[in-house]
Amino acid sequence: MTTNPIPAAAPSVARLIRELNKLPGVGPKSAQRLAYHVVRLPEEEARALSQAIVDVKDRVLFCSICQNLTDTEPCTICDDPRRDRSQICVLEEPLDVLALERTGCYRGLYHVLHGVISPMNGVGPEDLRLKELVGRLEKDSVSEVIIATNPTLEGEATAMYIRRHVVPEATRVTHLARGLPVGGDLEYADELTLSRAFQGRRDL
Q1: Residue 90 and residue 145 in contact, taking contact as beta carbons nearer than 8 Å
Q2: Residues whose CB is less than 8 angstroms from the CB of residue 60 and which lie 6 or more positions away in sequence, other chains included
Q3: What CA–CA distance (Å, rounded) separates 34 from 189?
């Protein structure tokens, strides 16, 4: 069975299809459609798309404080004096920050782990941004750590690890209420569900 979705495609188009097919959630058919959409774009739009990709690779970095993706140092959330610095919400991925920010229900700071503990996939605590979280908790006056990992087996295991091994005993640790579907991801939850989960968070 051939791996080339369009054997008759021009070499440059076939290459674009192969590269698009490497993106998560983009199968061969979707890659074909996207590639031919790019081919039909006006030249200025195609160049704007390619420049946006180059700019992301050149300019985006990890915030030295919260580990979120940013093109300023620190990120705009960490640099905002109106945020409540006594709260840190721990999340799995940068997309989860966007999901919670859309709700408008949280005005504290964030910390992005960039993954979860998953022995089956060879991911241990040392592979996450936990060392940076420990440093923040030792240095800053944080009264509450809100663990907002996804309601999956790995997310729950990561939450318990943080509670037992990362957060100081005297610090309050809460977890989002289980209005979220088990096995779901925060980035796919609607604003109302996320808001209620946040408001109903419980001590962990």
Answers
A1: yes
A2: 69, 70, 71
A3: 27
The identity of residue 120, as a single letter, is M
Any idea of the CA torsion for 118, 154, 113, 133, to the nearest 10 degrees? -100
Q: CATH number for 11-59: choose from 3.90.25.10, 1.10.8.420, 3.30.2010.10, 2.60.40.650.
A: 1.10.8.420
DSSP category for residue 181: P
Residue 70 has pLDDT above 90, yes or no: yes
Residues sharing a CB contact under 8 Å with residue 113, sequence separation 6 or more, in sequence order: 67, 90, 91, 92, 93, 128, 129, 130, 133, 149, 158
pLDDT average, residue stretch 39-43:
95
pLDDT in tens, 142-181: 999 999 999 888 999 999 999 999 999 889 999 987 666 6
Fill in the DSSP letter of residue 86. Answer: E
146/173 Cα distance (integer angstroms): 6
Q: How far is CA 125 from CA 107, 109, 116, 129, 188, in A?
A: 27, 22, 8, 8, 25
Domain boundaries, the chain: 11-59, 69-203
Is the distance from CB of 102 to CB of 79 less than 8 angstroms? Answer: no
This prediction's pTM: 0.75
Domain covering 69-203, topology: Dna Topoisomerase Vi A Subunit; Chain: A, domain 2 (3.40.1360)
What's the mean pLDDT when you consider all of the chain?
90
